[in-house]
Amino acid sequence: MTALMQSSAWNVLQTHQKEIAALHMRDLFAQEPDRFESFSLRCGEIFLDYSKNRITAQTLPLLFDLARAADVEGWRERMFTGEKINTSENRAVLHVALRNMSNQPIMVDGVDVMPQVQDVLERVGAFSHNVRNGTWRGFNGQRITDIVNIGIGGSNLGPMMVCEALSPYVSPDLKMHFVSNIDGTHIDETLAKLSPETALFIISSKTFTTQETMTNAAAVRDWFLAAPQTTEAAIAHHFVAVSTNVEAAIEFGITADNVFESWDWVGGRYSLWSATGLPIALAVGMDRFTELLAGAHEMDQHYRTAPLEQNMPVILAMLGVWYINFFAAESQAILPYDHHLEHFITYLQQTDMESNGKSVARDGAKVGHLTGPIIWGMPGSDGQHAFFQHLHQGTSLVPMDFLAPINLFKPTDHHHRILLANFFAQTEALMKGKTEQEARADLTAEGLRGERLESLLPYKIFAGNKPSNTILFDQLDPKNLGALIALYEHKIFVQSNIWNVNCFDQWGVELGKKLAGNILPELADDIPARGHDCSTTGLIAHYKARRHA
Ligand code: F6P
What we know:
Layout: H1 3-6, H2 8-20, H3 25-31, H4 35-38, E1 40-43, E2 46-49, H5 59-69, H6 72-80, E3 107-108, E4 111-112, H7 114-133, E5 146-150, H8 157-165, E6 175-179, H9 184-191, E7 199-204, H10 211-226, H11 235-238, E8 239-243, H12 246-252, E9 259-261, H13 278-284, H14 286-305, H15 312-326, E10 331-336, H16 342-356, E11 374-377, H17 388-393, E12 400-407, H18 413-432, H19 436-445, H20 450-456, E13 468-475, H21 478-499, H22 510-522, H23 534-546
Parallel strand pairs: 5-6, 5-7, 7-8, 8-9, 10-11, 10-12, 12-13
Antiparallel strand pairs: 1-2, 2-13, 3-4
Helix pairs in contact: 2-5, 5-15, 7-13, 8-13, 8-16, 13-14, 14-21, 15-21, 16-21
Residues 151-155, 205-207, 210, 213, 268-269, 354, 506, 509 line the site of 6-O-phosphono-beta-D-fructofuranose.
């Protein structure tokens, strides 16, 4: 048993869960007409309704007791003040410095990091401005028309998600491409659409050692140099890098002036606010990128200063803990009702699951409870026709976040109202369900009687009581997007405080990488696969026998 599970706050919550487990939200709503006012909150233009959760007036105070017992407020301050809270890598965690607009210094090892942050942001601004207005040109004087970001994980998902989410703001003069996969079709299909004279490649890798990125970058360089007229000198017009490993980027052949620096206190999955966001600045311009940072900063301020009881990231985090640890819910659905937020789900998969997919606590002991959830989802209303059947009538408890913009960039009123009607209807249906009495009345109204009615009845009953949060924002603009992303970043951090795990390392991805390195040479015809289990050996042998078939 971990200290957390032995704490009185945890025990009280366990008892409370037993007391309220049988309560139905439909009854709670009937008894509490002001439930919406009591359980909703606004931060800037982000509005959170958390009334459709399996909570009573007692639940959140008990969850806040747990948060205080886990020193959520202390951890928050440690992060904002540059303490090395990523202990297994001995690093500070300062994505908040990347969007710090307070004019306050942020110190790491006695040095204020803000001048470096501002310097790199200025370089990102100047470079993106020059590319966008045509001052920066390709080696033979043509304008850049295509931007290709080559990176994976945090060096891909954040900028790709933001460029997609803000697509109404993206310059029509620049086409954005994101190549991440080591599957060669990804790079081949992208290069087939490009001309070396007008393409700009961003090699984005914090470490500049990641196999996928380095392999794709080398393939692109070969493709570029193989084109007629291109020379080594032309590389300076078409290749830039984002990395903490400036030397390796230069060694790869990128001019020092074309390297945008990052720092070890920025985690890959928290890095879109840094030069990793260069594709964003190129796509939407530096002013919009700055608005994105401003939105995140506003959420940072809210998270840092609001009491736990009115703190949006803390409330979302503790509701998540409530279901994960006291109802054994293992997954969390993210359901954005906005076509442009499709990659938001994938982005959150990395941010949440790479951060809190941990089973060892900060003290090295095994945790004795569930930690980070499996994140999954699909934009609405598509998801309704894919997996909502399970959400309504399946056997697992899946807490859900429904997200939607109130206004659209381009008015498509008719469609948007239908979309939002579905959005509101789903959370209501999931909460209320349909009783046997209601189902019987519906079937009777449809003209069914007797045996046919009785045989259909069980299928028409919906248990309801399915918890969801609703997040509405005025518009999917850069500022609100920045705030939304920061909201989830902080939620994830708060949950890690409760579980006492370090959400800023990712040792779990190492083993597979290492084994792939061992297996790669064994895929040659003349080198046998050795030292594996019989399944892996058998699969490699089958592959080798059949690959030329
Ligand atoms: O997936 C592991 C990981 O280290 C991620 O944390 C990171 O975002 C990704 O690989 C890419 O790393 P890099 O930016 O160093 O290429």
